[in-house]
Design goal:
Shape: rod-shaped
Radius of gyration: 60 Å
CATH class of one domain: Mainly Alpha
Largest sheet: 5 strands, antiparallel
Number of strands: 10
Structural class: alpha+beta
Helix content: 55-70%
Distance between the termini: 36 Å
CATH superfamily of one domain: Helix Hairpins
Strand content: 15-25%
Strand order of the largest sheet: 6-9-8-7-10
Length: 343
């Protein structure tokens, strides 16, 4: 006897809990997808960006310091090389002058020896002195070449080390800057991917909601529950009967079976008087013919008259009761009545 509105749930299927959990899960996935969109559109976190900028600044400071240090090393070697060249040049010049002077002395001593002015021993000593000067000159030149060669090699190594060190640090700077650009960039492709995830998640939520809605059995019309066919925990035994029977008790109808030979006298809009065959209600009901069947069938209503023709051919005629009378007999669905149509 409970009244229900169209669309109002009248039963919940046993898969409701599972479908409800599935809906909540898809809603969570949708929220996660929205969060991913916001994250991608916002780019990298501030702390990550600042850390990368600090790394770049550190590399640049290191590059600047290495340039100064490496240049100082090269300048020191250049100064040392120049100093060695100057010292060796002066030494060679001095020794060469001594050698030339010794050779002059040898020539003079040879003349004196020929003139008998000096002994052969004095002449030989002077020659030995000249040879010694020549040997010293050769040694000085060799030392000069060796010393300058060593310093020039050190200079080349210092320059190579400078170039390698500066190149390595510059590469680190370039890589750090590239990383910074990458984390600061919001790529359209990434945005499209996460937006597609939102669309997919939203569709999943919609589908899950639709599945959950199907777990509710809803009233198809505004009416009153006349009879419950399936109780909680039971399986629907008869699909034709379903879970419950709902009727429009505010607009009660009476179905009259009119004999085939009399149906031509019945027309839409004719008034009818209805009484209870079994005294389910007192007095009369009044209604109006609203539908005349288009098919002739067998009499389905067995009256109390034993002389009635049970094989009579009849046509169903529907009569709508007045609102007041509908309310009077709203609880008497399928009651047997006697109908009089005013011809």
């Amino acid at each position: 006897g409970q009244r229900v509105n169209q669309g109002q749930p009248i039963a919940i299927l046993d898969n409701h809990s599972r479908l409800s959990a599935a809906l909540e899960q898809t809603k969570g996935q949708l929220q996660l997808a929205y969060a991913n969109v916001a994250k991608v559109q916002a780019g990298a976190q501030t702390g990550e960006i600042e850390a990368q900028k600090a790394a770049i600044a550190r590399y640049e400071a290191q590059l600047k310091g290495e340039k100064v240090a490496q240049q100082a090393t090269i300048s020191r070697i250049l100064a040392e090389l120049q100093g060695q060249k100057d010292v060796l040049r002066a030494t060679v010049a001095r020794v060469d002058a001594e050698r030339r002077n010794a050779q002059v002395e040898v020539g003079r001593y040879d003349t004196l020896f020929k003139e008998g002015a000096i002994s052969g021993q004095d002449r030989d000593r002077r020659r030995l002195s000249a040879e010694t000067s020549t040997q010293q000159l050769n040694e000085s030149q060799a030392s000069r070449i060796q010393a300058t060669s060593t310093l020039e090699q050190q200079l080349a190594e210092a320059k190579a080390n400078r170039d390698k060190t500066l190149m390595t640090i510059q590469k680190q700077i370039d890589e750090a800057k590239a990383t910074l650009s990458k984390i600061m960039e919001v790529r359209p492709t990434d945005v499209r991917v996460v937006q597609a995830q939102v669309i997919s998640s939203a569709a999943a939520v919609k589908q899950a909601q639709a599945d959950l809605d199907l777990s509710y059995v809803r009233a198809p019309i505004n009416g009153e529950i006349i009879k419950i066919h399936t109780k909680p925990g039971e399986t629907v035994a008869d699909p034709k009967k379903g879970i419950a029977q709902i009727g429009r008790t505010d607009r009660m109808l009476t179905v009259a079976e009119v004999a085939e030979e009399d149906i031509g006298k019945v027309h839409l809009g004719q008034r009818a008087t209805i009484t209870s065959e079994n005294h389910a209600f007192n007095g009369e009901l009044h209604g109006t013919v609203i539908n005349i069947g288009r098919q002739i069938g067998k009499n389905d209503i067995q009256g109390t008259d034993p002389a009635a023709d049970v094989d009579a051919r009849v046509v169903e005629v529907k009569i709508a009761l007045s609102p007041e009378d509908s309310q009077r007999v709203s609880g008497l669905t399928y009651g047997k009545v006697v109908v009089e149509i005013n011809i």
